[in-house]
Amino acid sequence: MDKPLTRNLKPDGSAATLAEYQSTGGYEAWRKALRDLAPAQVVALVKDAGLKGRGGAGFPTGVKWSLIPQTPGQKYVVVNADEMEPGTFKDRRLLEGDPHLLLEGAALAAYAVGADTAYIFLRGEYIEAARRLEHALAEARAAGLLGRNILGSEFSLGIHLHTSAGRYICGEETALLNALEGKRANPRTKPPFPQIAGLWGKPTVVNNVETLCNVPGIVAQGAAWYKGLSRSQDAGTKLYGASGRVNRPGLWELPMGTPIREILEEHAGGMKPGYRLRGFLPGGASTDFLLPEHLDLAMDYETIQKAGSRMGTGTMIVLDDRTCPVRMVLNLERFFAQESCGWCTPCRDGLPWVARILEDLVEGRGRPEDLDQLAKLARFMGPGNTFCALAPGAAEPLQSALKYFRGDFERYVERG
Amino acid sequence: MNTDTGLDPEETAEIQAALTHYPDPAAASIEALKIVQHHRRWVSDEALAAVADLLGMPIAELEGVATFYNLIYRKPVGRKVVHYCDSVSCWLLGADEVRAHLCKRLGIGLGETTQDGRYTLLPIVCLGACDHAPVLMLGGQLHGDLDAAKLDTILAREQHRG
């Protein structure tokens, strides 16, 4: 099977050089676009291919691009490389292993929307990725693949690496734009959407690393090929991962829609000896728990949503039968409480409240009314009540744990 | 020390190079703070004021940025910062034991610096290496699949480096 995202990743983890990248067809899509395709054709290709954003929300990428006004003027592309969702480790592998794939994807996005400047917003902790991206950028500039009048065309593009300094909220699209402008990373009101008024008020497209890494393949080989990679109604391949007490924690590029059982049992090697699967977060810390009864579901956006969760980043966090789900939720909620930017009340006040109730529970100070209060807080922090998706994301593991592991919560209350 | 800005010429030059990437100097604020921190290990009030002056930002605005981010240190830190991951995948696989062992070996609690000024211990959110949990970052270098024995080996190697 074709593996467009991981074909250049090496077992030793070193980065593919420009020569290595080009030896497997790298920058062919970039050459093709500049030579043969109008920007609108690139947008149409990505739209036809059905690529959905891989950062977690799953918004159709081509549609996002087509919202950029066609009028002349400054526009920007921003690569969201602020991977900080606990349990998620996919973009790091792409950034470190095949930086040119991201650069080619970002360049194609810039060409498609008419941007002459792109920024890679990279989390500060990804020090090795920063080093390798700078090297790849220098290689691409020296080869004339970036810069002024690229490959003899009229198109010019500068890509800059912007390293951040560690804060989960920066991964939120509009908070990222504020951070990139040098402000505190509070989210912005939508509308206007970034495609209309984004970075410094100019039309801006923000795409996740994995999303953009899909674009060169689509442009080089077409929408039908891309759709054919999938085993479900969602197109392409996906970087799936698993962490927790499984035999082989890791990351695998598989057809979109691969059944969860196949990922966890075949690729991750099943549970470690002496442990049984109790539940799992399918796509990072901000998704609802699923149970062993969900193992035969296909890992794609729609199927997981119908089951009451989200595919999110596609990297699963496994809960085993010897780990307390209440304590696991406490770890998650402490993270969200710490990383809230404090911009809106449900998040700023609600999350520490949730964390405090959970602390009281596990330390033997729980009261019967605490479980209702937790459920109420999860509702208050839900979609539509907050400025951005951080608190609704934090509510997901909490509300699903209350649903599926209620007995564990109640035992803490009963024991006192 | 340049008395006009409170910044070394080298720091000023590095910050000015970063400014060329952006149409607005304020966008280089995090990079500028990181440059100062790289040279001095932390960002003092005086250094922060000097950066604000160079970028044309109000001090209070830059202070708001500096205090927002986990990796900008507004207090002195040791020669190397030990960031241990306290997020969910590492927690599932024993991050609490890693932290306890680190505290014992270094003789300090979270947020503290060893007597010899060598290490400061800080928690950090998910380092994106969950397939090698538990993990920590020491002086910018990632170490995974940790247990007490591996931690001892890492610390012994560091000690040897001086």
Descriptive account of the structure:
The complex is a heterodimer of chains A (416) and B (162). Chain A is α/β, with parallel strands linked by helices and 416 residues long. Chain A is 44% helix and 11% strand. In chain A, helix 2 runs parallel beside helix 6, helix 3 crosses helix 6 and helix 13 runs antiparallel to helix 16 (390-404). The longest helix of chain A is centred in the C-terminal third of the chain and has 18 residues, at 345-362. Chain A starts with 17 loop residues before the first helix and ends with a helix. The model of chain A has no long low-confidence stretch (mean pLDDT 97). By secondary structure, chain B is of the alpha+beta class. Chain B has helices at residues 9-19, 29-40, 45-55, 59-66, 88-92, 95-106, 148-161; strands at 80-85, 119-124, 136-138, 141-143. A four-stranded mixed β-sheet of chain B has the order 2-1-3-4, covered by helices on one side. Chain B is elongated, with a radius of gyration of 18 Å. Classes of the chains: A alpha/beta (416), B alpha+beta (162).
How is the topology of this model organized?
The complex is a heterodimer of chains A (416) and B (162).
Chain A: H1 18-23, H2 28-36, H3 39-49, H4 61-66, E1 76-81, H5 90-97, H6 99-113, E2 117-122, H7 127-142, E3 158-163, H8 173-180, E4 204-208, H9 209-221, H10 223-228, E5 237-243, E6 250-255, H11 260-267, E7 277-281, H12 301-306, E8 315-320, H13 325-339, H14 345-362, H15 370-380, H16 390-404, H17 406-415
Parallel strand pairs in A: 1-2, 1-4, 2-3, 5-8
Antiparallel strand pairs in A: 5-6, 7-8
Helix pairs in contact in A: 2-6, 2-9, 3-6, 6-9, 13-14, 13-16, 14-15, 15-16
Chain B: H1 9-19, H2 29-40, H3 45-55, H4 59-66, E1 80-85, H5 88-92, H6 95-106, E2 119-124, E3 136-138, E4 141-143, H7 148-161
Parallel strand pairs in B: 1-2
Antiparallel strand pairs in B: 1-3, 3-4
Helix pairs in contact in B: 1-2, 2-3, 3-4
